[in-house]
Amino acid sequence: MLTYQTVTQKNAPKIRKYYENCDYELCEYTLGTKLMWREDLKPEWAESQGCLIVRNTFQGKKVYDFPVAGPGGDIDAALTEIEKDAFENGYPLGISIVPEKESVRLLHRYPYVHVYNIRTWNDYLYHADDLASFAGRRYSGQRNHIHKFEKACPDAVFRPLTPEDKPRIEQFWIDYEQEFTKEDLKKAADELRYSKRMMKLVGKPWFRCGAMWDGDKLIALALGEKCGDTLTIHIEKAIYSYEGIYPAFVKSYAQEFAQDVTYINREDDAADRGLRTSKLQYRPAFLAPKYVFRPYNDLQERVHEIPELKTGRLVLNAITEADIPAYNALVLDQDRNRWWGYDDLKELKEPFHERSFFDVVQQDWKDHNCINFAIRADGKFIGEAVLYNFDFRGGAEIGVRIDRAYDGLGYGSEAFRRVCDWALYQVHMVRIVAKCYHENEASFKMLSSYMRKDHSDETFAYFEKLV
Prior knowledge:
Blueprint: E1 5-6, H1 12-19, H2 31-36, H3 38-41, E2 44-48, E3 51-58, E4 61-64, E5 68-69, H4 75-89, E6 95-99, H5 100-109, E7 113-117, E8 123-127, H6 128-133, H7 140-152, E9 157-160, H8 166-179, H9 185-198, E10 208-214, E11 217-227, E12 230-238, H10 245-257, E13 263-265, H11 273-281, E14 286-288, E15 290-295, H12 298-302, E16 309-310, E17 314-318, H13 324-332, H14 356-366, E18 371-377, E19 380-388, E20 395-402, H15 411-425, E21 431-437, H16 441-450, E22 452-456, E23 460-466
Parallel strand pairs: 12-13, 20-21
Antiparallel strand pairs: 1-2, 2-3, 3-4, 3-5, 6-15, 7-15, 8-13, 8-14, 9-10, 10-11, 11-12, 16-17, 17-18, 18-19, 19-20, 21-23, 22-23
Helix pairs in contact: 7-10
């Protein structure tokens, strides 16, 4: 099970060690974005399989970043941990944001998945050399604005910011807010508040902070972060009344801080018309897509009602209200269920009543997390077969239990094989797994006759059936 911590300045160095060499080129894979927007996204982080795993809250739902590998990290194993975490906590699996270079991996991984790429989320990436020079005909407009700025402020200089500049930064915010106007005041006010908080981190080794000065007056500032071959600009503010200040500042900042990168990421436009116009005028090399993957399981895609399955002696179909007494007796037979590996009574979220277990079966089917088959011999309920733990990759786990009065007659094995065949050859799943306690010799023998042993741990022997 993953153990999460809240993203804070205190644990920032541990997070930063993953991001510093990350080549995803997106602003979401930076320490600055996690710190700046932590009130909105509530990011939590964990380490597993040599990777950084981040879980955010977006529009009231938990979503996961794509894993970021450290040295020797196993991304596929980390994705499996994410899938387990979502399942164990009852979250619909959502991986957001997925960089384009990793999207094919997920398309191969998930047979059934909804994929989104929302235009307003795309980051604007520019060639660092372009912004450091503004050379060529296509940047003539920017050069004209820079000339106007240099003519009006011939003594303006750019230099990196240091902690000693914090009083000047505080004065900058006062000057900036005197000219600050935005239609979406709430959104803009939050962004400004977060920017002020972030600029208090000037001097931290993770960030590249610079400013333009008109004498002793600070008139523009920025905070950026290098990750891999990309420098992401988290904050870029200037006093609007200085004509040409923005292109002049962009050029100076790039000259100072972007000599060791290929791209400068100036983040998305947040559907702001003015920002979009400005970002496009700087001629991006490309807009980096941000894919959202929402996998779903085989039940959701292919099974819309519980079918009736038959063998030579058995009928398997939905558990009904008429089965409640027999089903309760099966589930509450604690001595019989010592090999089941799951305490149905303990896992109830409410006090037990007559319909408790039946209601769980109904809800699991409604959510398409699980499918329970009643096993019937001569029309009588004698047990259940369950497919559960769907892994979003065409796999699920199977369990079968038979009433003690019908033990030893081969009914469990017969039902087991029928459900497996249905899942593999009619639902078109690719892998069915099962496990049994080492002490359960009968189950071990049955599973060995139909499935291939996969591995063992101290408690269980694990088996699988593949297509």
